[in-house]
Amino acid sequence: MPNDSEGFEDIRSSVRALCAEFPGEYWRKLDAEKAYPSAFVDAMTAGGFLGVLIPEEYDGSGLGLAAATAILEEIHLNGCNAAACHAQMYTMGTVLRHGSDAQKSEYLPKIASGDLRLQAFGVTEPTSGTDATRIKTTALKDGDDYIVNGQKVWTSRVEHSDLMLLLARTSPREENDKRHEGMSVFLVDIREAVDNGLTIRPIPTMINHATTEVFFDDLRIPASSLIGEEGKGFKYILDGMNAERILIASECIGDARWFVEKASGYAKDRTVFGRAIGQNQGVQFPIAKAYAATEAADLMVKKAAHLFDAGEPSGAEANMAKMLAADASWQAADMCLQTHGGFGFAEEYDVERKFRETRLYQIAPISTNLILSYIAEHVLGLPRSY
Question: Which of 74, 213, 244, 357 is labelled catalytic?
Answer without folding.
Answer: 244
